């Protein structure tokens, strides 16, 4: 197996990223770090070099789609089996890499991703173009999922580029939607990852900033279905209010 792991980081030291520590241990995995950091005190390039990882600085936060496109441009001329997308807050067990080595790169693979509370956040069910949580990965008819741990056959990334109008959210759902429309298969990789989901604990300032990004991205994703955009934004506002007990969330 030859895999390229793409890790996009934002204002976080690589040594604090469990996925970085996991990928650099694997001899048949070439890690590519794409740094979207805006914090000038974050110096990840030297840490990446010492670990044998490739490094790309975006010179500021250009969004997740921009970072992925920069990574794909860097990997375009490289040969290999897989492109693996890693989040900086996800624990990747050794079993993940062992299982991936047994897979033939004939379909996109989605591992089971849980929060620390045990909730499955990927894979999910796409119902009426809206992702819904699944109680079990075994009963999904229209599969979707998140980027974390997604393993993509390298051949699929030769011509695909992400829509940079999507800054952060629903990039993964758009990618899988595009791939399925082009006839590609999506299968479950039988291994579990654990993600420290950032929405679990936020103050009002960071929550509102995160909400504004979500609102912008959902407007792009649902540009043909504005009622779905309004539905999901209202649902998110209610969830934020219940989480933060602050009426300011309804003013954003």
Explained architecture:
This protein is an alpha/beta fold and 252 residues long. The protein has 7 helices and 12 strands. It has helices at 18-23, 45-51, 63-75, 94-101, 171-181, 204-221, 226-244; strands at 3-9, 29-35, 54-57, 82-86, 90-91, 108-115, 120-122, 124-127, 130-132, 143-144, 151-153, 186-195. Strands 3-2-1-4-11 form a 5-stranded mixed β-sheet, with helices on both faces. The protein has a 4-stranded mixed β-sheet with strand order 5-12-6-7. The protein has a 3-stranded antiparallel β-sheet with strand order 9-8-10. Helix 2 links the parallel strand 2 and strand 3 (54-57). Helix 6 (204-221) runs antiparallel to helix 7. The mean pLDDT is 94.
Topology (SSEs and partners):
Blueprint: E1 3-9, H1 18-23, E2 29-35, H2 45-51, E3 54-57, H3 63-75, E4 82-86, E5 90-91, H4 94-101, E6 108-115, E7 120-122, E8 124-127, E9 130-132, E10 143-144, E11 151-153, H5 171-181, E12 186-195, H6 204-221, H7 226-244
Parallel strand pairs: 1-2, 1-4, 2-3, 6-12
Antiparallel strand pairs: 4-11, 5-12, 6-7, 8-9, 8-10
Helix pairs in contact: 6-7
Which structural category do the helix and sheet elements fall into?
alpha/beta
**First-to-last CA distance:** 47 Å
Measured as a percent range, the helix fraction is 25-40%
Mean pLDDT: 94
Assign an overall shape: globular
Q: How many helix segments?
A: 7
Stretches with pLDDT under 50, minimum 5 residues: none
Number of distinct beta strands: 12
Write the element-wise H/E pattern from the N-terminal end onward.
EHEHEHEEHEEEEEEHEHH
Largest sheet: 5 strands, mixed
How much strand? 15-25%
Strands of the biggest beta sheet: in what spatial order?
3-2-1-4-11
Radius of gyration computed on alpha carbons: 18 Å
């Amino acid at each position: 197996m030859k895999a390229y792991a793409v890790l996009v980081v934002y204002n976080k030291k690589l040594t604090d990223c469990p996925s970085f520590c996991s990928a650099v241990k694997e001899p048949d995995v070439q890690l590519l770090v794409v740094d979207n950091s805006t914090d000038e005190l974050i110096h990840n390039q030297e840490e990446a070099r010492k670990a044998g990882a490739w490094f790309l600085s975006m010179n500021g936060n250009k969004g997740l789609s921009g970072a992925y496109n920069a990574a794909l441009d860097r990997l375009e001329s490289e040969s290999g089996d897989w492109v693996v997308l890693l989040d900086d807050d996800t624990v990747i067990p050794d079993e993940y890499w062992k299982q991936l080595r047994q897979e033939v790169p004939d379909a996109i693979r989605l591992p089971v991703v849980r929060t620390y509370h045990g909730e499955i956040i990927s894979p999910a069910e796409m119902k009426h173009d809206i992702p819904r949580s699944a109680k079990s990965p075994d009963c999904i008819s229209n599969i979707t999922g998140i980027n974390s741990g997604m393993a993509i056959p390298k051949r699929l990334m030769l011509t695909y580029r992400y829509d940079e109008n999507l800054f952060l959210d629903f990039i993964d759902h758009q990618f899988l939607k595009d791939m399925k429309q082009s006839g590609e298969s999506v299968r479950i990789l039988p291994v579990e990852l654990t993600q420290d989901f950032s929405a679990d604990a936020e103050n009002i300032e960071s929550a509102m900033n995160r909400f504004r990004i979500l609102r912008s991205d959902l407007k792009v994703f649902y540009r043909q279905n504005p009622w779905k955009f309004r539905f999901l934004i209202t649902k998110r506002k209610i969830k934020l209010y219940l989480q933060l007990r602050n009426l300011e969330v309804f003013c954003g």
